[in-house]
Amino acid sequence: xxxxxxxxxxxxxxxxxxxxxxxxxxxxxxxxxxxxxxxxxxxxxxxxxxxxxxxxxxxxxxxxxxxxxxxxxxxxxxxxxxxxxxxxxxxxxxxxxxxxxxxxxxxxxxxxxxxxxxxxxxxxxxxxxxxxxxxxxxxxxxxxxxxxxxxxxxxxxxxxxxxxxxxxxxxxxxxxxxxxxxxxxxxxxxxxxxxxxxxxxxxxxxxxxxxxxxxxxxxxxxxxxxxxxxxxxxxxxxxxxxxxxxxxxxxxxxxxxxxxxxxxxxxxxxxxxxxxxxxxxxxxxxxxxxxxxxxxxxxxxxxxxxxxxxxxxxxxxxxxxxxxxxxxxxxxxxxxxxxxx
Length: 341
Ligand code: 13P
Ligand code: SF4
What we know:
Strand content: 15-25%
Bound molecules: 1,3-dihydroxyacetonephosphate, iron/sulfur cluster
Radius of gyration: 20 Å
Oligomer: single chain
Distance between the termini: 41 Å
């Protein structure tokens, strides 16, 4: 599947000692008055030097608590964009401008606007709920933004039952949410390139080879993987689930493979085995559960963006509308409206 973006191509970058890079980053952080946020899917060594790590929900909230004038967001583009939207006065840097997301790419704003207009013309009375894995331009067209961490609760408490729901862009998360909320939804046909290729056959084999193991899955996985799972949750919920098991257990992990780093840190008594993926073109099993976009983040690029002050996320006109939607959806105490808002 093409995401429209080139995949990680950093094999030509000259080798630099990670310990030297970490020292350099530490020094630059002080000089540049910067805080580093890192998603659970970036390389473990970046998570280790970050000031905040977490899932999309926690990081979006953490970004609003940062005291420094600069935020470096090690994740993908929509995450940096959300951090900027919620902190207009701060400088937000991202290590690689090309770190995109197949889900965000699947839902261009013009196509969404056209589909919403079509539904309105048909007389449908709906609210649009967008997964946070969307561009800011798409967020500005929506009523609510959810993450894997708050989607069920937000839909149950905020979306009136007499409204239809248009859920974008992840069909698998949407289908899962239909099941847990009992709400009917119009689903956008997007999917995550990492989660949609887990192999059910290999998962069943891994379960057989590891008696007593538990399968933990992200709700971005297709239905057949979720059906075979013992626990389904966003990355923070998966982490909490593993922490809650005190007895050493083998977990078969159906999400992005870098997630094993925070799982091992939080609950080292367990064994974690990544579920293999299957390549669509050849049908061969692969270790392709690494997100090529998240993998664009490297220690070198974190150092470079701090040193060079770019790439920077700059304010766009549609960020104002996206800000209102993001804040009322994600913040526990949303900013009070002020004159002119
Ligand atoms: P969460 O960390 O919110 O579960 O998000 C997963 C993801 O795919 C981020 O791109
Ligand atoms: Fe997007 Fe999937 Fe990568 Fe997350 S793991 S950034 S949803 S492509």
